[in-house]
Amino acid sequence: MKKNKANIIKRRPIDIVIDTVIIVFFSLFTLICIFPFYYLFINTISDNDLVSRGLINFIPQGIHFSNYVALQNVTDLGSSILVTVARTILGTGLMVVVSAWAGYMVTKQKMWKRSFWYRALVITMYFNAGLVPWYMNMLMLGLTDNFLAYIIPGMVAPYNIILVKTYIESIPASLEESAVIDGASTPRVFRSIIWPLSIPILATIAIFGAVGNWNSFQDSLLLMSNKPQLYTLQHRLYIYLNTYSNLGAAMSSSGGVSNTAIQNMLNTKVVKYTISMVTIIPILVVYPVMQRYFVKGIMLGAVKG
After folding, report:
1. Which residue segment(s) compose the domain that 52 sits in?
2. What is residue 54's three-state secondary structure?
3. Are residues 221 and 292 in the same domain?
4. Which residues contact 231 (CB under 8 A, 6 or more apart)?
């Protein structure tokens, strides 16, 4: 079988050079993005004394995993992990549902006071009452020392609602009109047509919500002061790091123990690296799975203003 010469594209030397430059550039860019995580990881498994002196840059030395094992000493670590996982799953799931429904409703011209509610939603993105009014509001609502404080405030996310609204507006109106003609109600249209077609943007805001809930720290610090069993993982590890730092400073000032011994026992730099690695591992695992939805959703959700 002869090849059709008309379909063969002749590549000029300049094309090969340009392609090579592009490949090299993006390969280097990828390495630059990956290196901080690699650097963080090798410093958590290398000899602590070498890490404290800044001698671990590319290749791990004296490999061990005692830094991760030492996290077992964190008080109530298991309960804080359960709290963080629970708030991430529940908070993200409810946020996605509310954002999807609200984003769909503000596209409906027949919605009562549609323009008013949409503008009120957007205004909240630019004006904030501040930390003290926020805390007083949470206190009056009975959300201090209450697990619901992790869930309810995050259910309405204006930015995510706008993304969903913009995405839904790109869905052909004829699909919804045909369902309405067949007698489908608004909730049925949303459940059977809008929701399945909006999976890319919903996966996108799910990533935003999951990262935000997993990394959340301030609400636990301010609202759960009387219930340590409701501390999030970030808050618990923060306390652990402060304990190590304060203990190391106290031992240094009291004397009687060599600096080398203190560094080996209480190396706050290694503790910081280990804590950082533990907190980002779940996100590093989840993001590649959701990436294909994320790229598609964020692009289509940002087409219109």
Report:
1. 1-64
2. coil
3. yes
4. 76, 79, 80, 83, 220, 224, 239
* Radius of gyration, alpha carbons of the chain: 26
Instruction: Please state, in angstroms and rounded to a whole number, the distance separating the CA atoms of residues 193 and 190.
Output: 6
User: Can you count the helices (H) and strands (E) in the chain?
Assistant: 15, 0
Domain total of the chain? 2
The token pair at 286 is 């989840």
Q: How far, in Å, CA of 138 to CA of 128, rounded?
A: 15
For residue 120, count other CB atoms closer than 10 A to its CB. Answer: 11
Q: Is residue 305 part of a domain?
A: no
Number of Cβ within 10 Å of residue 2's Cβ equals 4
Q: Are residues 27 and 78 in the same domain?
A: no
Could you give the CA distance from residue 49 to residue 43 in angstroms, rounded to a whole number? 10
pTM: 0.76
User: Tokens for 113?
Assistant: 């006071």
CA neighbor of 154 nearest in space, from 197, 204, 211, 198: 211
Sequence-distant (≥ 6) Cβ neighbours of residue 207 within 8 angstroms: 286, 287, 290, 294
Residues 157 and 253 in one domain: yes
Last residue of a domain, one of 64, 97, 116: 64
Shared-domain flag, residues 161 and 54: no
Mean pLDDT by 10 residues, the chain (305 residues): 58 83 92 88 85 82 82 78 92 94 87 84 83 89 90 90 88 82 85 87 88 88 88 85 66 50 57 80 74 57 45
Q: Which residue has the tokens 């304990």?
A: 243
Q: Which residues contact 180 (CB under 8 A, 6 or more apart)?
A: 189
Q: How far is 70 from 66, CA to CA, in rounded Å?
A: 6
